[in-house]
Task: inverse folding
């Protein structure tokens, strides 16, 4: 990697999992004293430190950009010769087994554009510490296996910062002279410093309470700006539902007397599970029908649940080191996915989750940044909050839950929580608890933690009419990934059923365990050839290839009783037509059109499922099926099929659209499903080319009483070049420009749109007066969305690549973490033709040549070039 970098760039150090050592010093207690002010905050920290083991190594307290104004040991001020700084860390030699160490530093939160540590957002002061932000607040051993009890004292101006919050329980507060006031909070649960949080600001509270299963009353608060208070109801409901769900499903009760959530406008990701004081990106708290789509509502519910669930899977049991990140993230995603499924539709939730996995994680797993869910090394841990750690991590837990069944899985999680409560644990600890509590051998299964890459499974069914038996031959192959050229076979659980085409019945669902490179399974009692339904429910995160005909897939798309498999059959039917045509074959699209018609007219299907099933695979997913992605051919083929489905079934689309006109807003699953189907119908109707398409979309845009329908109509119009497009975008802007989250949708809808001048439009939007690099949501809405618009981003001129690279370079100077998130889009150059590949590489090299590039972007761009 060194030779990829410009001669001046420093190569960031590599941290390896194998190098783990227990901490030299522990910190059982810490007292923090904050004198808060956006321009100049003083932080005094008093640490009780205890030598851990028999060694004479000095105390090393991590720091990032901190200058110690004072260092005391056991109350005595040290001379400057008695301590020194090493790579930002404070090094102090200590003679005894225990000491009290005190430091004083000054911070300028208002100039903290990285949004890590203590920073200012919209008049608030707030913190973000995971993964390594605490070292930007005070000197401390910033690693998750150092657990401390925190006592926090804060002083601030009472007018600007009337509310002072921190982790744990409020102890006392009082007034001071000069309009200042103070508050003290204590957190009785020892925690790693990445879970520290404080917030100071002028906030209003949606206050509620929850009685836990043991009868304790917990005070709940969602803190937002006064004007946003009416938009917090959904988040509060989600919080209470999550608390009840975790008691019911996992037997886990909340432990403190208060639970607070604060919404902030400037946040690097979704939310943060700080103990007793979650801090959220406001987009995952605020929702009302005027501004939030159903997807936004579901996002609020899912993220509130996710952060709440971390109280056990993450906080009570935390991670020993950052290589174990999936221990808390994979498990917690699995928990939030199941919660959301229980709150709505299991079938639709599974389809949505698999779509996300395929779009984000499968791409990652087949590119230069592929890594196992428990990585072996990293340069910057912020780069490892990935779809692999989160979403593939959740799939690994899901497979264990499937193999064990609900009771044994629960026995495993009970053992895990009980055994490791209050500890910093490892992925291996989790697997051991599953083995012991669930009575299963997971020796081979552990490879899912070690090997990167999405396994390919080839399943071929052959029927012998004489013996009336079928043989299913299954082969697996795990592709090479960076640093892992050769792979061992995985343990892959495949839920399978064989359908009798005459009766559309099967003899039960079987869990086949694939453990060898190649295996055969024989089934008897089949006079005629059955149809194979495999990887039902997406039981394993693998790519399955079969020898099923279009007729088999059409059959399954109409009859499979596993909703995921039914959806999957439909998708595969569509993929086969599109990929065949892109390869120049004359593939008949009649089975697709018939399957869509049958699905639309099946009286027993749920509208939300129908809307999922009839959707064409995304351009990116089609690209993933090709060795070399051809964005233009994909776009043309998909557009043509969409137009054909639209035109051939035009009457049906019109009927559905007219018959689903909303009658008052509701968040019931039925109402949400109806809106989803209505929007899909509108989409196909406009795609059909019907002359009145844009007018119908424009009418929906104007008449809708909710953002789900309004935004979908806007998105549909944004794809074309109609006069209605311009009018709708203007109306939307004028109506919502004062609301940042809704204005993000205006940027995002245009960034996702298929428009002939997409790249120029993005360029112009980047210069818009409402665009800013200092708000991560805005950056993601424009450049993040655009980079996901395969056809536009991969414009053969390379203009799209240049735009995103320009953004990365400019943003890196302000906020490296968010800048680095954009880099992987440029990294899949091996999958594109030589011209595009060379253009992408050139942009990566241009980025790497930037002087002063962050460790975050250096790691991502460097690895992407390998
Ligand atoms: N644990 C945080 C993510 C922190 C990301 C730091 N780069 C939110 C979550 O996963 O719940
Ligand atoms: Zn999480």
Result:
């Amino acid at each position: 990697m060194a030779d990829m970098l410009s001669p001046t760039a420093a190569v960031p150090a590599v941290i390896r999992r194998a190098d783990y050592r227990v901490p030299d010093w522990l910190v059982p207690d810490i007292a923090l004293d904050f004198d808060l002010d956006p321009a100049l905050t003083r932080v005094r920290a008093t640490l009780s430190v205890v030598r851990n083991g028999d060694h004479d190594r000095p105390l090393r307290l991590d720091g990032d950009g901190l200058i110690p104004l004072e260092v005391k040991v056991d109350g005595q001020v040290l001379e400057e010769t008695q301590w020194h700084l090493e790579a930002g860390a404070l090094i102090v030699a200590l003679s005894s087994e225990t000491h009290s160490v005190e430091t004083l530093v000054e911070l300028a939160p208002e100039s903290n554009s990285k949004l890590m540590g203590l920073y200012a957002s919209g008049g608030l002061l707030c913190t973000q510490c995971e993964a390594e932000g605490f070292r930007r607040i005070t000197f401390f051993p910033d690693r998750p296996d150092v657990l401390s009890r925190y006592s926090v004292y804060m002083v601030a101006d009472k007018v600007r910062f009337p509310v002072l919050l921190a982790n744990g329980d409020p102890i006392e507060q009082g007034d001071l002279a000069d309009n200042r006031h103070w508050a003290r909070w204590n957190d009785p649960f020892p925690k790693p410093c990445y879970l520290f949080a404080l917030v100071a600001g002028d906030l209003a509270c949606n206050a509620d309470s929850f009685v836990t299963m043991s009868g304790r009353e917990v005070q709940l608060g969602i803190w937002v700006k006064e004007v946003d208070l009416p938009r917090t109801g959904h988040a509060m409901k989600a919080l209470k539902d999550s608390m009840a769900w975790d008691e019911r499903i996992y037997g886990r009760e909340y432990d403190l007397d208060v639970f607070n959530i604060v919404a902030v406008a400037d946040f690097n990701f979704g939310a943060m599970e700080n103990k007793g004081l979650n801090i959220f990106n406001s987009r995952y708290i605020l929702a009302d029908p005027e501004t939030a789509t159903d997807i936004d509502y579901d996002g609020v519910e899912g993220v509130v649940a996710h952060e709440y669930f971390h109280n056990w899977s993450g906080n009570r049991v935390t991670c020993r080191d950052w290589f174990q990140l999936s221990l808390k993230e994979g498990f917690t995603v699995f928990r939030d996915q199941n919660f959301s499924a229980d709150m709505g539709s299991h079938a639709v939730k599974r389809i949505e989750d698999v779509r996300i996995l395929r779009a984000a994680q499968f791409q990652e797993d087949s590119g230069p940044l592929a890594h196992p869910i428990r990585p072996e090394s990293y340069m910057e841990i912020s780069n490892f909050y990935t779809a692999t750690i989160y979403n593939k991590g959740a799939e690994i837990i899901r497979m264990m839950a499937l193999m064990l069944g609900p009771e044994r899985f629960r026995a495993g999680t009970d053992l895990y929580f009980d055994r490791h409560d209050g500890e910093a644990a490892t992925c291996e600890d989790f697997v051991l608890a599953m083995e012991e509590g669930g009575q299963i051998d997971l020796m081979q299964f552990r490879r899912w933690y070690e090997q990167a890459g999405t396994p390919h499974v080839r399943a071929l069914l052959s029927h012998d009419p004489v013996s009336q038996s079928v043989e299913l031959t299954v082969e697996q192959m795990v592709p090479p990934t960076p640093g892992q050229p050769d792979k061992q076979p995985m343990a892959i659980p495949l839920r399978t059923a064989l359908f009798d085409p005459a009766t559309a019945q099967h003899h039960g669902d079987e869990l086949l365990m694939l453990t060898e490179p190649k295996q055969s399974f024989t089934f008897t009692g089949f006079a005629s050839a059955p149809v194979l339904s495999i990887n039902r429910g997406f039981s394993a995160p693998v790519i399955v290839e079969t020898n099923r005909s279009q007729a088999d897939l059409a059959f399954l798309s109409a009859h499979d009783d596993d909703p995921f498999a039914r959806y999957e059959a439909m998708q595969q039917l569509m993929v086969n037509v599109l990929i065949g045509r892109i390869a120049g074959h004359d593939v008949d699209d009649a089975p697709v059109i018939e399957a869509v018609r049958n699905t639309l007219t099946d009286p027993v299907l749920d509208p939300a499922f129908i809307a999922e099933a009839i959707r064409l695979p995304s351009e990116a997913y089609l690209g993933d099926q090709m060795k070399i992605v051809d964005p233009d051919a994909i776009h043309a083929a998909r557009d043509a099929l969409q137009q054909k489905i639209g035109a051939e079934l035009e009457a049906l689309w019109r009927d559905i659209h007219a018959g689903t006109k909303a009658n008052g807003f509701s968040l019931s699953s039925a109402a949400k499903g109806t809106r989803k189907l209505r929007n899909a119908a509108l989409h196909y109707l406009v795609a059909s080319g019907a002359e009145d398409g844009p007018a119908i979309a424009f009418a929906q845009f104007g008449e809708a009483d909710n953002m789900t329908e309004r935004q979908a109509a806007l998105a549909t119009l944004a794809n074309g070049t109609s006069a209605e497009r311009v009018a709708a975008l203007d109306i939307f802007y004028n109506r919502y420009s004062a609301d940042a989250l809704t204005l993000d949708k205006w940027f995002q809808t245009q960034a996702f749109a298929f428009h002939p001048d997409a790249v120029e439009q993005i360029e112009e939007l980047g210069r818009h007066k409402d665009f800013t690099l200092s708000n991560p949501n805005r950056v993601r809405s424009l450049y993040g969305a655009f980079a996901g618009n395969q056809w536009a981003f991969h414009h053969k001129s390379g203009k799209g690549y240049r735009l995103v690279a320009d953004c990365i370079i400019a943003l890196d100077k302000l906020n490296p973490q968010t800048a680095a998130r954009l880099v992987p889009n440029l990294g899949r150059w091996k999958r594109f033709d030589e011209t595009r590949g060379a253009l992408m590489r050139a942009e990566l090299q241009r980025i790497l040549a930037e002087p002063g590039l962050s460790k975050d972007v250096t790691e991502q761009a460097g690895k992407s070039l390998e």
About this structure: The chain has 27 helices and 32 strands.
